[in-house]
Specification:
about 180 residues; alpha/beta; Rossmann fold; 5-stranded parallel sheet; 3-stranded antiparallel sheet; 4 helices; globular
């Protein structure tokens, strides 16, 4: 796997230091509030575990499986998820956790459906990575670990075809790895 990485963007210690900062900010912002964290699976699992251990508040945790990539390197344009298994969010402050804000399609679809179907007190978004790029509707995270260029990254939960999630750092995947991969379908 390491031979497939062009370069490392963030080492594990850099990520963990940034999570300390994010957790302190989130703890201060939500002090005294009913917080529900909604983690988007599978990409956010490492981020979620490490961040939530640092947040010094009681909170509820719910997980939602959602995807718009479906195995490729670019969004398919179709977001799939099911809100049916979520707890009651009425009156609660909801913090959506995701691994990366790229096109904004997934997070916009989820936050829109939450707003339309329930009555949370607030909905905010926290991502590990936010790409520096224009997005339709100006979608941006309320909390972002790091801003990156428009590159395809893996590690620390981020994957390519379900590989590389378990790398302890975030790195740029060599283009020849995904440009020479056979099409799935």
């Amino acid at each position: 796997m390491l031979n497939d990485i062009e370069r490392t963007l963030f080492h594990e210690q850099t990520i963990l230091r940034r999570l300390d900062e994010l957790a302190a900010q989130i703890t201060a912002d939500y002090e005294g509030r009913d917080l529900t964290v909604l983690a988007i699976l599978n990409g956010s699992i490492f981020f979620m575990a490490d961040l939530l251990r640092r947040i010094q508040l009681p909170l509820h945790l719910a997980c939602l499986s959602a995807s718009s990539y479906h195995g490729g390197t670019e969004s398919s344009g179709t977001v799939t998820f099911d809100l049916g298994s979520l707890p009651d969010l009425d009156g609660r402050h909801v913090l959506i956790l995701d691994d990366i804000l790229d096109t904004g399609l997934t997070l916009r679809a989820i936050s829109g459906r939450l707003s339309a179907g329930t009555r949370p007190a607030s909905i905010k978004i926290c991502v590990l990575l936010q790409k520096r790029k224009a997005r339709p509707g100006g979608m941006a995270a309320d909390y972002a670990g790091f801003e990156i260029g428009d590159e395809f990254v893996v590690g620390y939960g981020l994957d390519y075809r379900e590989h590389y999630r378990n790398l302890p750092f975030i790195g740029v995947l060599k283009q020849e790895v995904f440009s020479s991969a056979p099409a799935r379908g």
